[in-house]
Amino acid sequence: MDKELVNKVEHPHAIKSFVVRSGRMTPGQEKAYEEQWGDYGVDADEQVLDFELLFARQAPVILEIAFGMGDSMLEMAARHPENNYLGIEVHKPGVDRVLANISEQLLSNLKVMKFDAVEVLKKQIKDNSLTVVYLFFLIPGIKSVIKNGVLCRMILFN
Ligand SMILES: C[S@@+](CC[C@H](N)C(=O)[O-])C[C@H]1O[C@@H](n2cnc3c(N)ncnc32)[C@H](O)[C@@H]1O
Questions:
Q1: Which end of the chain, C or N, has fewer beta carbons within 10 A?
Q2: Per-residue pLDDT for 66 more than 90?
Q3: How many domains does the structure of the chain reveal?
């Protein structure tokens, strides 16, 4: 059976917890982004992540799902160099900001993925490979509560 059809059958009512809005970058921003992504970005694919290889060392791995603009994750990574941090976010300005900060602060213990966290958790994270998982939602408001509820349910039950 063709793969597209299989996906449709397996996920007949595919729900997303986010909407991706694209913005424009200047050529300079684009170049900086490419360089920083090469150093600190992790491509989403079907491969299970090997954290030891990814961080070039063995240490507890802390995952932050949906890190927004990344303040909490950047602070944790700077304060706890003994841990490795992985952040997953779909919002490009947040990913760009974190990449720029990692590069500026030379944080070797923080990597980011720009993808749907539900898919990454399903396909790329080995069981029992994470020490802590954070999912912070600091913004009150009915819309964000609904979207956050969708994301939490998808993570818990998918
Ligand atoms: C209300 S914001 C919270 C951001 C941050 N955690 C905070 O507390 O400030 C929700 C975030 O979840 C992200 N998000 C929603 N669904 C997601 C998904 N499936 N995978 C990754 N990020 C997601 C959105 O892009 C957005 O940045």
A1: N
A2: yes
A3: 1
